[in-house]
Design brief:
It contains 2 helices and 11 strands. It is mostly beta strands and 258 residues long.
Amino acid sequence: MAMAQDRPVQSVLTADFGGSAVRNTYLAPLLYEGSQIGVRYERWRTMRSFRWTNQQIIDVEVADGDSENGKHSTTWSGRAMYRYAMHRDVSYLLGSRLTNLRLLLGPYAGIESGFDYNLKIAGSNNPGTVRLVGNTGVSLAAKYGYSIMGKPCTVNFQAQMPLIGVAFMPEFGASYYETFLLESDNNVHFTSLHNEQDLDLRLSTDIPLAVIPGLKRLKTVVRLGAYYHIETMDINSIVNRYSTIGFSIGWTWKYLPL
């Protein structure tokens, strides 16, 4: 039981609100800018060795955007992602100068799916696209502890970037009838930094509501943060760009696994 108490699970649930920019040359060469909303769940757990920490992430979001001046059309986009990361505590690299800072580094593997749908060409043969990507990459996390009115708080930073993977993306000009029923052989591709650039950045802080006068008995911890994500793929002469930037709000809690 003592070991379980030393290895609590931390869960985080947040809602994201921000702006988006989408370009998919399979549908149109235009850039579509608009808004984005999403839901993100994270689960952190320290392993038995206490040197490694695993992290699981589920992220679902949708975005809409209009072309320049709204003269052309609207595009709807969506993304869903699951990642599993293993982080090694490398705080020893900092020496004894920053005792309140934890530095975590390691690999991750995940699967991501997405779609773009153009309303202007909704009646055509190819009004939308889908993509499915499996990636492995590198994950960096940093956690810094501080206090407000004697209550412990944390600043969190995380950066993740894929290095190699495999992607399903239809050939330029091919309809989905041709893709799936005529067995086109140019849909699955090796991905790396030469044709996929992806970066996910998040900065947040965890603050207990007990710091507010009159709420000292509450144990709820809220998370406030900001994020930036950009992904660019260039496969089969199709450029697919999707980026979001905004703010997140949610709460974090810890519990002991049975």
